[in-house]
Predict the 3D structure of the following.
Amino acid sequence: MTGQLKDFLATRKQVIEETLPTFIQKLNTTQSLKNAMLYSLEAGGKRLRPVLVLALLHTYKKPERDGLATACAIEMIHTYSLIHDDLPCMDDDDLRRGKPTNHKVFGEALAVLAGDSLLTESFSIIVNDPYCPSEQKLRLITELVKAAGAEGMVGGQVLDMEGEAKELSLLELQHIHENKTAKLLAYSLLAGGILAGAPECDIENLRKIGYHLGIAFQIRDDILDIEGSEDRIGKPVGSDSVNEKNTYPKLLTMQGAKDKLNDHISQAQLFIKELTVEAPLLLEICELIANRDH
Ligand code: GRG
């Protein structure tokens, strides 16, 4: 990773981490709910999705301030999905981001409600963004619903649950992860493009880049569940195999999964080179996704 990318990631992560709690602190609601929301939001994480929004504004030489609210809204939706995914009725995990999961600290009922609030408030954050024109807000929200709802992440989670302990084809696995993981990640790029006023041809390219990066991100996740270090990923390794999950290494062998990951990264980089702007930062982020260790 070049010093420039390292610096970009570190500085933008800090801005996002300073801004995220401000949206929760100002809510006029009970402190116990705010505490449960803040606990998971402040538990760390790579902040990849919000950083991608800011990277797009940077790429189009637009003020990053214009993307900050949407970036935080996406991170809140991502955090809600992790809280719900960890619940006993889903993956039943005790550790997330190196800390006890939300329901272990606050109980199941408050964990469900903290997730619900993070999801709902994220829409309010976009609607109330003072830097974003109304037509952009409408488009941002329409696309967000497609990425995070029944036609996206939630639908993907259901397919994933239904596929457990069944032998899936590669196409079926791809379909699950396109919905469960890739669509929200792709939305981060798309939202950045919309906020930056990118031309329509670029917006369509950003969807393709997001698809390939999202699948690559998931393949790397599957690989890390076998080869990763518990300290780095913040949760036990080997849980996919215990939960009889269908994963890329299981379907393709470890080498096959690594080859597939590289194919998706190359595809993403090809589409990045077709954008109407030079995007060295995005090219480097592709490498980061391919090689991440957490
Ligand atoms: C419960 C509606 C609902 C959806 C859950 C995203 C998801 C769907 C579940 C998470 C399970 C999982 C391990 C998915 C694989 C890819 C993924 C989203 C990993 C976690 O994202 P990171 O690595 O996490 O960006 P950090 O902690 O860095 O933010």
